[in-house]
Amino acid sequence: MNGNSSRTGLIVFACLAFASVPVAAQTSGQDSPAPAQASAAGSDSRYARTSYSIFRADYWLEYIEDGAKILTSPLRWDGRDWVDAGFVGVVTGGFFLLDEEIKDFWQDDLKSGGTDEAANIFQAFGDRAWIAPALPVAYVAGGFLRYGLKDTVEGARLQETALLSAESFLLAAGLTEGIKRLSGRARPNQSLDNDDFEGPGGGKSFPSGHATHAFAIASVVASEYQHSVAIRVGAYTFATLASLARINDNKHWASDLFLGAALGYFIGKFVYEENPFHNDQGFTLLPVASTDTVGLELAYRF
Fold this sequence. Notes:
Elements: H1 3-19, H2 22-25, H3 35-42, H4 44-49, H5 57-72, H6 79-110, H7 113-122, H8 128-148, H9 152-183, H10 209-224, H11 229-248, H12 254-273, E1 282-289, E2 294-301
Antiparallel strand pairs: 1-2
Helix pairs in contact: 1-6, 6-12, 7-11, 8-9, 9-10, 9-12, 10-11, 10-12
C-alpha cells in the first residue's frame, strides 16, 4: 500500500476504535437510567434487601418478556429511537464502504506477531466459550462477598450484574445468530468481496457475534457500576479490543463489528432498564432441606 492509503487506513482505524465504543457512549444521556431507575441504582439499601436467587421466577420470565419486547420494539419506537436507529444504519453503511480498505490496511500494514498475541487474549471477552463459565463464577463470587465476607452491597451488586449480563448475553446472541443466518455474509477470509451476501445457508460474518456479546455485557457492567468511571471505561475498552481482535484475525469486516457492538450495547441497556430486581416483588422458588424434608418452597415478596 502507498503512503496515502496507509494514512487513510490509520484514520479509518481511529474512527473504528472510537465509534465501536457504544455509539459514542450515548452522550445524549442514555447512559443514565431514568430518574426512578437512577434512584434505585444509586441506593445501597436496594442491593442489601434484594434476593438474587437463581430460582426467582420473575427473573426467568424476563427472558421471554424482554425477548418479545426487543423483537417488536420498532413498533413502539419514538422519534429519538428512529434517530438512533438511523445513526447506526448510516455508520454501518459508512463502514461497509470502507470494509475492504480497512481489511487491507490491517492485514498488510498493521498485523504482526504482537497484534496476534493481543488478539488471542482480548477475543476471549467476546467468546461464548469463555463467557459461559465466567458469568456463573461471577455470580458465585458475589455470593461469597455477600455472605462470606459480609460485603452485602458489593456482593449483591456483583450477583445482579452476573444475572443481568447472562440475560443480555443470551438475548443478544440469539438475535445476532438469527441475523447471521438470514444475511449469509461471507467472512473476509472466505471472500475478497465485502458484498458477498448469500442469504440463508451462506456465511456467518454479519454481524459479529464477538462484538455483540462483548458489548451486551459491557453495557450492563457500565450501568451497574456507573458510579465508577474506571469500571465503565474498562468495560467498553475490553469490549472494543475484543471486537478489533476479529479484524486482526481476518474473521470479520469492520461493518460487522460496528453493527454487532451497537446491537449488544442497546440490548444490554434495555435489559438493565427492565431489571426485575429494581422492583423486588414476585415469586421465588427456593430449595428446602432438613433432616426429614427435601423439596421446594414457593415464596412471594411484596
